[in-house]
Design brief:
Two copies of one chain form a homodimer. Chain A is mainly α and about 140 residues long. Chain A is about 60% helix and about 10% strand. Chain A contains seven helices and three strands. The model of chain A has no long low-confidence stretch (mean pLDDT about 95). Chain A binds a DNA duplex (30 and 30 nucleotides) through helix 1, helix 2 and helix 4.
DNA sequence: CGCAATTAAATTGTGTACAATGTAATTGTA
DNA sequence: TACAATTACATTGTACACAATTTAATTGCG
């Protein structure tokens, strides 16, 4: 039997998985400076943009479930960057909102994307292709 | 100040991270059939190809360190798919090799890549572009 | 040779991920 | 309007992932 399909270099998933991890590892020094992990960072990115969101909304945007988000959000709360309170109109919903401290953090985070861009040595066109293809894949996997 | 750079949709890392996770989640039903996790699966892929490898070599190929690999390999050993023994010539090296049971598993795994290909709705050309760009990125990050 | 430096794995500690399950609030319908 | 179904979040259990440290073996240099 021909087992070539089982070779790592014939898989599309593997370089995706490895790339994702390696890039996140490169974020670490920059994120350490502002005392966030990558998961905490992407959660804050939504909240900086929206001011507030439910756990459900965060999960949909970030492709994460409450099992992952609950401890992440509790951690962000303990650091003082967010507040967690139940909705008055529907107590099932937990509303997460940015504190003043969390807004200040945004100032210190704004330099990170530029620093990271320097780590990814892609041509502008390649980056655009990659971006388009990845979002196409994500779109197919809803 | 303009905070657009901090928007999730302006990041390249995020769709990479989300795509990687979503695809691996789609592997799960197929991998469940052969009682492997994704990490165990990619470790077995190297070993099916090479017959044997050290933890160091596996780590280099898979972008994983011993802190991740040691428990994964112990698990594969407990399932009977691999053997772990120290090298005779250099006892620092741990040599991981496939058992007969592990080789049999290969037969059952060989259908998985095809099943997964059906889950990724990309044109052939897009898949090739994606592949090329991802390996370029990985190459830059050595 | 002798011993400091290096190397390979294992261990420890923290933080995700996610499936499965539990709990409480809300909705829809007979 | 009861109450079954649904929904949102939390909890539990398993499995990574990685930085930092530890341990043991090997290498290289004076």
């Amino acid at each position: 039997m021909n087992y070539d399909v089982l070779k790592l270099e014939n898989q599309l998933c593997f370089p995706l998985y490895a790339c994702s991890k390696e890039i996140i590892r490169r974020y670490k020094p920059f994120l350490d400076d502002i005392d966030l992990t990558y998961t905490q960072y992407i959660a804050m990115m939504i909240l900086w943009e929206e001011e507030q969101a439910t756990v459900k909304e965060l999960g949909t945007r970030l492709y994460l479930d409450s099992g992952t988000l609950t401890p992440v959000l509790k951690k962000l709360e303990s650091k003082g960057y967010i507040e967690r309170k139940r909705s008055d109109t529907d107590e099932r919903n937990l509303i997460v909102s940015v504190t003043d401290e969390g807004k200040k953090l945004r100032e210190r985070a704004v330099c990170i994307p530029e620093k990271m861009a320097g780590c990814v040595n892609l041509e502008k066109e390649e980056a655009e292709q990659l971006y388009r293809i990845l979002y196409k894949m994500l779109g197919c996997m809803e």
